[in-house]
Design a protein that fits this description.
249 residues; alpha/beta; TIM Barrel; two-stranded antiparallel sheet; 9 helices; 10 strands; globular
């Protein structure tokens, strides 16, 4: 079984690897769902060995309907990720009517090749995405990250179980959003999925001593919120997954 941890800093990446992550999803701005990481962060990430790294390709926050300029940016970012030798990318594009944009996804898969391509939680914002899974398989998408079109993966577990049963032999279905050591075993019993995605992050607090600026009306308190991957949270999830693996019939 595979544990994937989503991180937006080099520090969190090291923590995740040390705690037993099998794979990293590398992004920036995890607090808004993750964006394409900077070149500097990607370059630092390449210093870490012996772990798979998939890079988020998302040019901005908000919806997954991209204009031509944004799409060109995504293609350029994929080319850089490919040149740097990462294992794959994580991305997703929707059409105006809510369907998955298969044509553009196909183009990104071709540009990324031989890197693997994952469809992220744009799947959960899509209109009736289950009907598009055979087409995603056909164009070469290797994995779908999903909360089962619900607020979190546990709420969407039955939907995840349905697509796992129908398509799990042809594409990896990976539950994500709200996954933790306390519910992985329950998720496995319901879905039989073998890949799990989490951030395992906590607010470590800002180390800034000077905070007079917070008195200004235009300075948000969120500037003093710093989140990092937590070793213990990830290690507990790793232990649960290993226990499930060891007790499979």
């Amino acid at each position: 079984m595979i544990l994937e941890v989503c991180v937006d800093s080099y520090t969190s990446m090291i923590t995740a690897k040390d705690a037993g992550a099998d794979r990293i999803e590398l992004c920036s701005a995890l607090n808004i769902g993750g964006l394409t990481p900077s070149y500097g962060l990607m370059k630092k990430a390449k210093e870490i060995r012996d772990i798979e790294i998939f890079v988020m390709i998302r040019p901005r926050s908000g919806d997954f309907l991209y204009d031509d300029n944004e799409f060109e940016t995504m293609k350029q970012d994929i080319s850089i990720v490919k040149q740097m030798g990462f294992d794959g990318i994580v991305t997703g594009i929707l059409l105006r009517d809510g369907r998955i944009d298969i044509d553009r996804m196909r183009e990104l898969v071709k540009i990324a090749y031989p890197l693997k391509v994952v469809l992220h939680r744009a799947f959960d914002d899509a209109k009736n995405p289950m009907r598009d899974i055979p087409r995603l398989i056909k164009i070469g998408v290797c994995r779908i990250l999903t909360s089962g079109q619900r607020a979190n993966a546990l709420e969407g577990a039955n939907y995840i179980a349905e697509i796992q049963e129908k398509f799990g032999d042809s594409i990896t279905i990976m539950p994500g959003c709200g996954i933790n050591a306390g519910n992985i075993e329950q998720m496995y019993k319901i879905t039989k999925c073998t890949h799990y995605h989490l951030s395992g992050k906590v607010n470590v607090g800002s180390q800034m001593e000077y905070r007079e600026c917070i008195k200004r009306m235009d300075t948000p308190k969120s500037e003093f919120v710093v989140e990092r991957a937590d070793y213990d949270l990830i290690k507990k999830a790793r232990d649960i997954i290993d226990n499930i693996e060891n007790n499979k019939e």
